[in-house]
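[Automated response] Your request has been received and processed.

Submitted sequence:
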Amino acid sequence: MSFGTTRTTCHPGQAVSYTIDIYLDWNTQDDTGLPWTFLDQAADPSRIRPGAHVVAGHDDAVAVAEIVDIDTDGVVHLRQLPGPVSTNAHRPSAPVS
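Generated structure:
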């Protein structure tokens, strides 16, 4: 699945539709200890700003995350919020229905 693709997930008693805002491999970490990706991996780069909450990931490894920072080379660091997307569906800066 690529970024910008709407997806529905079901958890007990709850179905949540979401769009991946930024493609991220959660296993990538640099010397900050945080996962990172490039700004051009975002469906809408204008929404990617420090402090924003977004849906990040790829395929089945998707979570809501906070944008920690963006450096001058376009490297975006994120911090995953605990719990599944359904638990944090109210947090992203873009609608999650």
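Summary generated for your ticket: The chain has a mean pLDDT of 84. The CA atoms of residues 33 and 77 lie 9 Å apart.
If you did not submit this request, please reply to this message.
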